[in-house]
Design goal:
Elements (H helix, E strand, L loop, with lengths): L11 H4 L10 H10 L3 H13 L3 H10 L7 H13 L3 H10 L2
Length: 99
């Protein structure tokens, strides 16, 4: 498993979210980067997290990917997957959008 460097300013926030075992959290790291509009780095991390069945990763990818980065069909699939993995915010989106 890849470790992130805590010496870089870009990773300073992500370092706060490392688990006690020192492993990175691609969902949290990707969310932080997406919130900083660093989508070229964020989207692969969020995709990795979602592919590993992280509800947070799927929800963040669906909610934070800019228009054109993913199709609306893919976005809806991600909300449904996050819901099926137990994320209540995603389930609310699924219900609101009648997906």
């Amino acid at each position: 498993m890849r470790q992130i460097s805590c010496f870089s300013m870009d990773n300073a926030d992500a370092c706060r979210w490392l688990t006690e075992g020192g492993h990175r959290d691609p969902a949290m790291e990707g969310t932080i980067l997406a919130n900083k509009k660093k989508f070229d780095r964020a989207l692969p991390l969020l995709t990795e997290a979602c592919n590993a069945n992280s509800a947070k990763g799927c929800l963040a990818l669906a909610a934070l990917a800019p228009p054109g980065a993913i199709t609306e069909s893919r976005r809806n699939d991600l909300f449904r997957k996050a819901c099926s993995l137990g994320d209540q915010d995603a389930c609310q989106v699924v219900a609101d959008r009648q997906l």
